[in-house]
Structure formats: structure tokens, C-alpha cells
TrEMBL record:
Function description: Catalyzes the formation of methylglyoxal from dihydroxyacetone phosphate.
Binding-site residues, substrate: H18, K22, T44, G45, T46, T47, S64, G65, H97
Gene from which the chain derives: mgsA
Family the UniProt entry places it in: Belongs to the methylglyoxal synthase family.
Organism: Dyadobacter koreensis
Protein name, as recorded: Methylglyoxal synthase
MF GO annotations: methylglyoxal synthase activity
Keywords carried by this UniProt record: Lyase
Record-listed E.C. numbers: 4.2.3.3
Length: 150
């Protein structure tokens, strides 16, 4: 049996960027400021402060990624409080919180959350007609997993 989750036209978007990708995320956000203004934004640490100043719109600020911000976003995903993740991560630099990053991306798959990890993917998602309408997301039923004998 599958479950369904309604993602409304006004999305709850979490935005994260590693240090080497912040400029790229800010440039992308500036190009998409009108679309972003229609949604509720959340962001980790410095990224959130920079986005708020750039976009001149409120951004709910979370902790810096290495200080638990990635885990906060993951918790919000598990609580069905995030509809979309824009996470420009740096594949060329080891991060002190790499396990948190992997866990966050895993939760996006578990909870069927769209993830943009680079500008091209973000562009594809943000130009989709689904960004401007309600969407019913199919959620995998994990009842068997939860009821397994351990």
C-alpha cells in the first residue's frame, strides 16, 4: 500500500551550499528570485544569511551544516516539513560532516523529496510546470520494515 503526500503550490524549500559552491548557488538564486519569492525558504548557516540579503525575503535560518544544520534539514524532511532540497555540494572537497551529507541525501530518497545538487538540476526542477501547481507525491509504505522482527 502506498501513501500520498500533497506538496502545495507554495513549496517549502531547503537550500544548502558548501563553501566552494556558495557563489554558484547565490548566482542561481538571483536568476530565480521571482520563483523563490513564491515559496518558503529555509537555509543552513552562512548560506541562509547570504540568501536573505540577496533575495530581500525572509529565510528561516538553521545551523551551519557542520554544526548540525544538515541534520536539521534531514529532521524537517522526516517530519514532512520540506518539499524540495537545493543542495549545491562540493564533490571535490572532503567535508568534516560527509556522513551528515550522505544521511541527508538518503532521507530525500526515503521520503521522495526532489533534490537539486547542481545548477542544471535546479534549473530543470524550477522550470517544471509542477513548481507552479499542487503535486501529489507517492510515499513508499515502510510498514513491513517497521513491523519486521529483529
Amino acid at each position: 500500500m502506498e501513501n500520498f503526500r500533497k506538496i502545495t503550490v507554495s513549496k517549502r524549500i531547503a537550500m544548502v551550499a558548501h563553501d566552494n559552491r556558495k557563489v554558484e548557488l547565490l548566482d542561481w538564486a538571483n536568476s530565480n528570485r521571482e520563483q523563490l519569492s513564491k515559496n518558503k525558504l529555509y537555509a543552513t548557516g552562512t548560506t541562509g544569511k547570504l540568501l536573505e540579503a540577496l533575495l530581500n525575503q525572509p529565510v528561516e535560518l538553521l545551523l551551519s551544516g557542520p554544526l548540525g544544520g544538515d541534520q536539521q534539514v534531514g529532521s524537517m524532511i522526516a517530519e514532512e516539513r520540506i518539499d524540495l532540497l537545493v543542495f549545491f555540494w562540493d564533490p571535490m572537497s572532503a567535508q568534516p560532516h560527509d556522513p551528515d551529507v550522505k544521511a541527508l541525501l538518503r532521507l530525500c530518497v526515503v521520503w521522495n523529496i526532489p533534490v537539486a545538487s547542481n545548477r542544471a538540476t535546479a534549473d530543470f526542477i524550477f522550470t517544471s510546470p509542477l513548481m507552479n501547481e499542487d503535486y501529489i507525491a507517492v510515499q513508499t509504505d515502510y510498514t513491513k520494515y517497521l513491523n519486521r522482527v529483529v
